[in-house]
Amino acid sequence: MWAVTCFHTRPGHRRQGIAAALAEATVPFARERGAKALEAYPMVTEPGEPVPWGEAHVGTRAMFEDAGFVEVGRPTLRRVVMRIDF
Q: How far is 41 from 63, CA to CA, in rounded Å?
């Protein structure tokens, strides 16, 4: 099991799709290196609603869905466990 725990994008470069591109890139990276599965623990966000400062460093559910992950758990109302099996 490999895990994607967080992203850090330098100020001035945020909100440009960098984290989403990194989330997509984790899939072939992990697969090619023998991972059996890949998990992420993003926040559930709603379009138009602000995300409290510091919470989006784990990514968003939509971002990981777009990368092929599926929700497998919901430990809190705003946090999900996303997984892709190889």
A: 11
